[in-house]
Design a protein that fits this description.
The protein has about 500 residues and is of the alpha/beta class. It is built from 18 helices and 13 strands. It has a single domain, classed as Rossmann fold, CATH 3.40.50. About 40% of the residues lie in helices and about 15% in strands.
């Protein structure tokens, strides 16, 4: 019997930054001037594009920054829950700022997700971002609508989320019926606990929020660094507000034209490739629990997953390591090759001692679950709520079956487990939209950064995003893991800093 872990798909586009490497770069020699994308008057609100009259109350509000630990300052800003009804209910967006010593304006950042907290990411900024970049900007992290400390999506209790994350389903008629029942229960809980906001956490609304934030901090143009899903948010902003787009870096690009099925297929294949890269590295390390060829090692991991499906591993806690949790624990280290040794240790414990505790720890790290059983964020719930508005789910079960077969053949380890994830949005109370390419005609030059071995946002997505955008340059990191700036090398940081700080685009085709 084949099995699926549909809720595992919530891991596949997550925060883009894992193990930062702080550097202070030397000046970068680049060739293409960024031109009008970030003019000298970018911080002068008198030169901003006209404010929509019906939204003047929001654009004209004052931001009250208050100290919130160390050098950080925090604030909240109000935006309309529904931009078609600006006189209706208001929601709050949480902001956290690290002032620059010689700031030329603000740099808004988004860690990905959807569902990642920019407020939480700010704690890593002193390590991830170069000194030059931190000096040049007031770096501002924000929680998009529905996320974290902003007015947030609420769905499940901690115990309910534990059960959801550990579940897997047969692909026969009864199994898929149970999956639909669980998906409907989650949708109902989200609607009851979140209310009307649940229908307004789409990315277009979040991009409109960004324009309010840009204006209230006094910037005429939005300077922005977005990772992973943050590239979709940034591209959407540039599409809707091309005249207000400043220097924008999209790291770990998402192809805006892909539907949910195509995205999941590409990710399953990319995670399979990342797993093979990990196994090859492990086998060459001299301390690997796997043996034989790369094919043999991958097969041994597949055998371990099958064993957990039949008999979940003990973890020394009240929670056993199910196949769903094991798959989550194996997938997380694919985001950051610096933590591959943690996966090696976890596999060693599972394979030789039947101890699933280390893989459970990795799975919990990916879901923001704390040792006391609480979840530090609502990222899993926000991920589902935002994606179900951003992507239209198919209603054709036969297509789901065909997609599942294709994924199982292309990605033997992960494809089967990640199939049928669209069922989760079939049961959602709001319909998603059909995806379209984004061109951002009229926006200034945009820098897209792609990583050749990125499992969550495959490199070809960055290539396609660059091709779709009217004015964009692709910068390539030749390496493994998810995204590049803050976790790769000085070549990347110098190129990104050169653009964000000085407005000079890296040379076309630069590979770091």
């Amino acid at each position: 019997m084949r099995h699926i872990v549909a809720f595992l798909a919530a891991l596949l586009i997550v925060a883009g930054c894992a193990a930062p490497q702080p550097e202070t770069p030397a000046p970068v020699e680049t060739t293409t001037d960024a031109g009008s994308g970030a003019p000298d008057d970018a911080t002068d609100p008198e030169h901003a594009a006209p404010v929509p009259a019906e939204l003047a109350d929001y654009y004209d509000q004052n931001v009250a920054w208050e100290g919130c630990g160390g050098q950080f300052e925090c604030a909240s800003v109000e935006v309309p829950m529904d931009y078609d009804d600006p006189e209706g209910q208001r929601i709050e967006l949480a902001l956290k700022r690290l002032p620059g010593s010689d700031a030329q304006g603000s740099l808004f950042i988004n860690p990905g997700g959807p569902g990642g907290s920019g407020v939480d990411l700010m704690e890593a900024v002193p390590l991830m971002f170069t000194t030059n970049l931190r000096d040049a900007y007031d770096v501002i992290g924000f929680d998009p609508r529905g996320v974290g400390s902003s007015t947030a999506v609420e769905c499940l209790s901690d115990a309910e989320l534990d059960r959801l994350r550990s579940a897997h389903y047969d692909t026969d008629e009864d199994g898929l019926a149970l999956l639909r029942e669980q998906a409907a229960d989650m949708a109902d809980a989200c609607q009851r606990h979140t209310g009307e906001l649940l229908g307004h956490v789409d990315t277009v609304s979040a991009a409109r929020d960004l324009d309010v934030l840009r204006h209230v901090v006094g910037d005429a143009h939005l300077n922005y660094l977005g990772y992973s899903y943050g590239t979709l948010l940034g591209a959407t902003y540039a599409e809707h507000f091309p005249d207000n787009a400043g220097r924008m870096v999209l790291d770990g690009g998402i192809d805006p034209s892909l539907d949910d099925a195509a995205m999941t297929f590409d990710q399953a294949v990319a995670f399979e490739a990342a797993l093979r890269a990990y196994v090859e590295d492990c086998l060459s390390s001299g301390s690997c629990p796997l043996s034989g060829s790369v094919d043999d090692g991958v097969g041994q991991i597949q055998d371990l997953l099958a064993m957990a499906e039949a008999t979940p591993l003990p973890t020394g806690t009240s929670r056993d390591l199910t196949i769903a949790l094991m798959a989550s624990g194996i997938i997380l280290p694919m985001y950051e090759d610096a933590i591959w040794p943690m996966l090696t240790s976890a596999l060693q414990a599972a394979m030789t001692e039947q101890d699933g505790s280390q893989l459970l720890l990795l799975a919990d790290m990916g879901a923001d679950r704390q040792p006391d059983g609480t979840y530090a964020s609502n990222s899993t719930e926000a991920f589902r709520a935002i994606n179900c508005l951003d992507y239209a789910a198919t209603s054709e079960d036969k297509r789901l079956d065909r997609d599942a077969q294709r994924m199982a053949e292309a990605a033997p380890t992960f494809g089967e487990l990640l199939s049928y994830s669209e069922v989760l949005c079939q049961e959602w109370p709001y319909e998603g939209v059909e995806r379209q390419p984004i061109h951002a005609e009229g926006a200034g030059p945009i820098l897209v950064v792609g990583t050749t071995g990125d499992p969550a946002t495959p490199y070809k997505w960055s290539v396609r995003l660059t091709e779709q955008l009217a004015d964009a340059t692709l910068l390539t990191f030749d390496g493994h893991g998810h995204t590049a700036y803050g976790r790769s090398n000085s070549c990347i940081s110098e190129a990104v800093d050169g653009y964000l700080i000085d407005g000079v685009m890296p040379e076309e085709g630069l590979v770091c």
